[in-house]
Amino acid sequence: TRPSERPPTGFEGDPATWRTPRTRTGRAPYPGIMPVTYAYLGPEGTFTEAALRAMPGAANATRVPFTGVPAVFDALRAGTADAAMVPLENSVEGGVPATMDELIGGEGLLITAEVFIPVEFALLVRPGTDMTAIKRVITHPHAQAQCRRWLARELPEAEVLAASSTAAAAMAVAEPGAIYEAAIAAPIAGEHYGLRALVRGIGDRADAVTRFVFVERGGARPPESTAADRTSLVAYIADDHPGALLEILREFSVRGVNLTRIESRPTGDGLGRYCFCIDAEGHVADARVGEALMGLRRVCADVKFLGSYPRADGRQAEVRRGTADHDFTHAQDWLERIRGGA
After folding, report:
1. Which among 216, 3, 29, 231 has a CA at the least distance from the CA of 106?
2. How far apart are CA 277 and CA 95, in angstroms?
3. Is 210 a catalytic residue?
């Protein structure tokens, strides 16, 4: 698609650079030219679509929904899409296994941004349906888990079935001759598929948030540091022995790098073989983060770098005494003087 004649919101300067977004401070958080085709977990009406619409440049891009996270990544790797938006973790249910497995198993991918979306669930029905008529409810397993108490209290006899996404659940209820009386999904899904929100705000946690990541094919440099960044990676232990996880954690701890998430996932190479998906505060350009990654590379069988990108919450890392960039520079200079006989 071509950019419009007027610069979209968040863009500035010459039309040739309209796809290069700018933050309020004038920094360019994403490298190069923004892609023009986005893939996302569909169908239309998912929380993932809402996250994608929050991205700079999304209004001027072609947005293509796919059924299932693997299909989204297949489109990205095949070149059908230039970038993709997928859910990574939820504040209630934790990580999204399908996304983590694709990031672990696939090569040449780079996370360049993240988006936080508050999660609101509604019970969607066809017009004329009331609570007494609901015998079967369809939704995504994560949505079911986040509405477990409400379902047990309000629809204890209803059968709950799984869908590939909350929007797919809404679409299934809207189809002629559907066997489901209700879907649990975002209110926007009801607007897409002509359903009525019989009850809104049915989640057990009103403050639930889902984190989405914007993924591009590798080959470009990570976005520049903003002082409020996150670095994602996968660490593979060399062999299973006492203290293997401690060795990984120590590389971060001694350099003052705080971890915001660590989760083990099977490698697929045999029972008991695991890797660790890690999110750390800071940017790969920060000396403390770079040194930690080098330390991991020495003690691990492999380390897969998934990206350094601006944090959606804008929170800056607390830099402990002795772990700022200039501390590493001064220490390196001191060592070089000793080696030189000074």
Report:
1. 216
2. 10
3. yes
* C-beta neighbour count of 83 within 10 angstroms: 24
Q: Which residues of 232-262 are buried (b: 16+ CB within 10 A; e: fewer)?
A: bbbbbbeeeeeebeebbeebbeebbbeeeee
Where are the extended beta strands (E) located within 9-166? 37-41, 62-66, 83-90, 94-95, 109-118, 122-125, 136-139, 159-162
pLDDT tens by residue, 61-105: 889 999 889 999 999 998 889 999 999 998 888 888 889 989 988
Strand, helix or coil at 305?
A: strand
CA distances from 203 to 82, 193, 240, 304, 341 (A): 34, 21, 40, 35, 67
| Active-site option among 73, 121, 212, 252 | 212
DSSP conformational letter for 35: P
pLDDT at 323 over 50: yes
Determine whether 132 is an active site residue.
Answer: no
| Rounded (5°) CA angle 190-194-196 | 60
| pTM recorded for the entire structure | 0.78
Helices (H) and strands (E) in the chain, counts: 10, 15
Tens digit of each residue's pLDDT (9 = 90 or more) over 159-210: 999 998 888 999 999 999 999 999 999 888 998 899 999 999 999 988 889 9
**80/191 Cα distance (integer angstroms):** 28
The catalytic residue among 46, 139, 210, 226 is: 210
The answer to whether 200 and 122 are in contact (CB under 8 A) is yes
